[in-house]
Amino acid sequence: MTVLVTGGVGYIGIGTCAQLLESGRTVRVLDSLLHGQRDLADQLAASGVEVQIGDIRDPVARAKALAGVDEVVHLAAIVGDPACARDPRHSNSVNVEGATAMVRDAAAAGVQRFVFASTCSNYGRMADPTVPITEEGELRPVSLYAEQKVGIEELLLAGGHGMVATCLRFATIYGVAPRMRFDLTVNEFTRDLWAGRHLEVFGEQFWRPYVHVRDAGRAVRAVLDHPADVVGGQVFNVGNSAENYRKLDIVEAVTKAVPNASVSFVARDEDPRDYKVSFDKIARVLGFTTTATVPDGIAEVIEALEAGRFADPFSPIHRN
Description:
Blueprint: E1 2-6, H1 13-22, E2 26-31, H2 38-46, E3 50-53, H3 59-66, E4 71-74, H4 81-86, H5 88-108, E5 113-119, H6 144-157, E6 164-170, E7 172-174, H7 185-194, E8 199-202, E9 207-212, H8 213-225, H9 228-231, E10 234-238, E11 244-246, H10 247-257, E12 263-266, H11 280-286, H12 294-306
């Protein structure tokens, strides 16, 4: 099987490519290298991945990338609420128009299976965040990013395109990866407190689920390794039901590993998301279990920082 991973040189993408190579697939990547990851693209190519540099919005790039492809994993996006809010027109052109064109062209090219990277942010602010929500729960997106993801989910799940489509709602990602991000809660809190910076935290009582970046890639592989009649037309929350945390819990876990940390809690209203998520379905249907916990990720990030793996962990290259 030949699989195309859009955004394959990204934070989740590189590990996903490694998983799919390990499964015996031929792996192709389409990535615009928005964050300047030319060295990582070269490393992927050296590992046996066919790397095509291009934009998913470019019809010529899409046609070339989809030629002879059996499966598509669509990760490419302007990722995250702040990045989408900063330039709504650009994020719409990538996350909606580009994704829609990819679905259309993949179907026309005879692609059999399509895996779409979505987000648990689709659940927004739950009426009762203490009760874990399942894939059948109400979607209440409160950000442009989540609204865009919901729209593409609806397109895929409506059918009519002839592909076996699966939507993966990822929990908030954390952990060390080749294309490192320090604008994600666990990674950011750990970096800041490790560096001796004062950390201001808002919404400390709000719930979120978390999943390691490595487990995100494993989940993609699990979907593609299962029969079409098991995963077709399905949505899976990706994470572990035991890995729902409040920001307060994250801070407490980091401060256990970082002595003398300086933290204060402030009141703000700009991020109303509050949701606790059930991951029972992916465990029951796919037998998928995560391999890392948030404390594991905190220890991993500290170890990488101590080892000097990042020339400047505060560099803009580590943010979306």
